[in-house]
Each structure stands twice: as structure tokens, then as C-alpha cells.
TrEMBL record, chain A:
Binding site for Mg(2+): T30, T47
Tree of life domain: Eukaryota
Annotated protein name in UniProt: ADP-ribosylation factor-like protein 3
Short name of one Pfam family: Arf
Cellular compartments per GO CC: Golgi apparatus
Gene Ontology biological-process annotations: protein transport
Family stated for the protein in its record: Belongs to the small GTPase superfamily. Arf family.
Organism encoding this protein: Effrenium voratum
Keyword tags: Golgi apparatus, GTP-binding, Lipoprotein, Magnesium, Metal-binding, Myristate, Nucleotide-binding, Protein transport, Transport
Automatic annotation (TrEMBL), chain B:
Family of the protein in this entry: Belongs to the PDE6D/unc-119 family.
Domain of life: Eukaryota
GO cellular component, one term: cytoplasm
Domain GMP phosphodiesterase delta subunit as annotated: residue spans: 9-147
Protein name per UniProt: GMP phosphodiesterase delta subunit domain-containing protein
A matching Pfam family: GMP_PDE_delta
InterPro entries hit by this protein: Ig_E-set, PDED_dom, PDED_dom_sf
Length: 178, 148
């Protein structure tokens, strides 16, 4: 499982892919990536900058950029848009209060020229929590159905249990190859 | 603008906090540096030799910068008895002021028959990491590897 096995599915001619992971603070971006690499997720601190996972295998390079989601850091997100092949947007499904804020940030991202037309995966994270909204409800509240300028999907997941993570990443790599 | 002053401030505000190495297929930490003393010319790392049997190894490096950096890049060299074995280049680009960042690189190990034995490698391998802002070197760090 994980990012290593996903790399094996990439085609020879795709030498490199850059994936950008964004979302509000505490959405679980770093935890998702650590879980995908089978790493310990018990002591994760808020990201005060970026975390990059750079994976090289058989000449392929996968670079995953996870940028901190705190309000003070968000104005710097645009420095990381260049050359992005796919976007992962992470939502805390249990935080109904901030769903509108998350939605507004996403709308801004989707309007960015540098991110135009690239595939987008939305992770509806924290599905292990009782108060989590299901993915279809989040999709409706955020009006995702109106996005018609790119391929996108929403994937229910739990970074804690790992459920849904692999499926999401596989979709993303498949969509990036097209 | 006083470029020299900015480069100096950048150097002073740049710190490597820690490094670790993992078996990338299990995510298990095989070695970690703990708190890092940047002022030392050469650090030593004592790594369990089991890491040489891992199919994929990840090296993770955590660093902080007080200053904004517009074009950060890194050159990492693996040197065996003074000879360059591997060289990695990575372009980070922009670094947020007062940020703490990590770079984790996962690499596939050499085939077993191409692998040098631990006894031969131990104490003879140095990993040298140099950070640059564009053309300006910010810092160089050397770690000598001992396999236990």
C-alpha cells in the first residue's frame, strides 16, 4: 500500500509528477501523507511551512507538497502553484462550523490560472469521527457538482484508520495520466 | 538593496533541526539524529546495518528559516572514501519566513549484488548536504555514517 506502490503504476514517459496538498489547518493533510507511508501518526504537529515527500523509483519521481493550512500561512500558498500536476484538497468532515471557510478557500484555488484544469481529489477526512458529515453531504454543501473545468472526485477517508486513502491516490494518479 | 546583508541574515537564520532514516516499506525509523548541533563541521551517525537490507530507504530532514528564501535548492552528495557515489538535487523554491519545513526523500536501494558490504562502508561514507539560495550557498552539513 501507499505512495510507493502508486509509483509503480505510472507510465514510463511520465518522469515526474508534482502533487499539491492543501486545505485548512487541522484538516489532516500531514497525517494522510504519513499514513500513506505507513509512518507513525501519533505525534503530528501543525505544519509551519511545507512538508515534501519526494519519491524516486525506476526513474519516476513523485513530489508531494503539503503546505501548512493556518490562516497566516495561506497567503503563501500561491508560491507553490507552479508546475502542479494535481491538487489534493483535504477537509475535516467533522468541522461543520468551518466548512464554509474551507469551501471559500477552495473556490479561490479553483480560480487560479496556475491550477487551471488539473485533476482534483477532495478528501473528506475524519470519517472515523461520529459527528463527521458523509462525503455526499459535504459535496452538496460545497457545491462541488458545479465544477466543470476539470476532473475531480470526493473520497471519504480516515487518515487515522487509513480507510479510503489508497483509493483516493489511485484515482488521482489515474486522472493525472490522462 | 544590500544583497550581502540579506545572505548573511539568511545564513544566520537557517537551521537544520533533525534528520532521520526509515525503512520506507514499513515506515519504521531506523535512525534519528535528535537535536542537531549545526556548528559542528562533521556529525557522526551510527546506523543499524539492517538498513542496508531495506529495499527502499527514506531520509528525512527538518529545517527552519527565519528569513524568506526565494529560490532554495539543495545538493546532497553521498561520498565514499572521497569519491562521489550519488548526487541528488532538489529545488524547493520559495521558503516562508519563520517556517519549519521537512524534506523526505525515498530512494530505492541498489541491487544486493551491487551493494558494498557494511564493513567496507562503515566510517567511509559521508553524506554532504548543501543548501543554496539560487547561487548563494547558505550552509553545508556533513554526516559520516557508521554501520553497527
Amino acid at each position: 500500500m501507499g505512495l510507493l506502490s502508486i509509483l509503480k503504476k505510472m507510465k514510463k514517459e511520465e518522469q515526474e509528477a508534482r502533487i499539491l496538498v492543501l486545505g485548512l489547518d487541522n484538516a489532516g493533510k500531514t497525517t494522510i501523507l504519513k499514513k500513506l507511508s505507513e509512518e507513525d501518526i501519533t505525534h503530528i504537529m501543525p505544519t509551519q511551512g511545507f512538508n515534501i515527500k519526494s519519491i524516486v523509483q525506476d526513474g519516476f519521481k513523485l513530489n508531494v507538497w503539503d503546505i501548512g493550512g493556518q490562516k497566516a500561512i495561506r497567503p503563501y500558498w500561491s508560491n507553490y502553484f507552479e508546475n502542479t500536476d494535481a491538487l489534493v484538497y483535504v477537509i475535516d468532515s467533522s468541522d461543520r462550523r468551518r466548512l464554509e471557510e474551507s469551501s471559500a478557500e477552495l473556490r479561490e484555488l479553483l480560480a487560479e490560472d496556475k491550477l487551471a484544469a488539473i485533476p482534483m481529489l477532495v478528501y473528506a477526512n475524519k470519517q472515523d469521527l461520529l459527528q463527521a458529515s458523509p462525503a455526499d453531504e459535504i459535496s452538496e454543501v460545497m457545491g462541488l457538482a458545479s465544477i466543470d473545468d476539470r476532473v475531480w472526485t470526493i473520497q471519504a477517508c480516515s487518515a487515522k484508520s487509513g480507510e479510503g486513502l489508497q483509493e483516493g491516490m489511485e484515482w488521482l494518479i489515474g486522472a493525472t495520466r490522462k | 538593496m544590500d544583497d550581502g546583508g540579506h545572505v548573511q541574515a539568511m545564513r544566520e537564520g537557517f537551521h537544520i533541526n533533525w534528520m532521520n532514516m526509515r525503512d520506507a516499506s514499513t515506515g519504521q525509523v531506523m535512525w534519528e539524529s535528535g537535536e542537531w548541533d549545526c556548528d559542528q563541521e562533521e556529525m557522526e551517525a551510527q546506523i543499524p546495518c539492517e538498513i542496508l537490507r531495506c529495499r527502499q530507504v527514506s531520509r528525512e530532514l527538518n529545517f527552519s528559516s527565519v528569513e524568506v528564501i526565494t529560490s532554495l535548492r539543495l545538493v546532497q552528495s553521498v561520498i565514499f572514501k572521497g569519491e562521489l557515489l550519488e548526487e541528488w538535487n532538489f529545488h524547493f523554491g520559495f521558503v516562508i519566513p519563520n517556517s519549519t519545513n521537512t524534506w523526505q526523500q525515498t530512494i530505492e536501494a541498489a541491487e544486493e549484488e551491487e551493494m558494498l558490504p557494511a564493513e567496507l562502508l562503515s566510517g567511509n561514507v559521508v553524506i554532504e548536504t548543501t543548501f543554496f539560495d539560487g547561487e548563494y550557498p547558505i550552509m553545508t552539513q556533513r554526516v559520516r555514517i557508521w554501520y553497527l
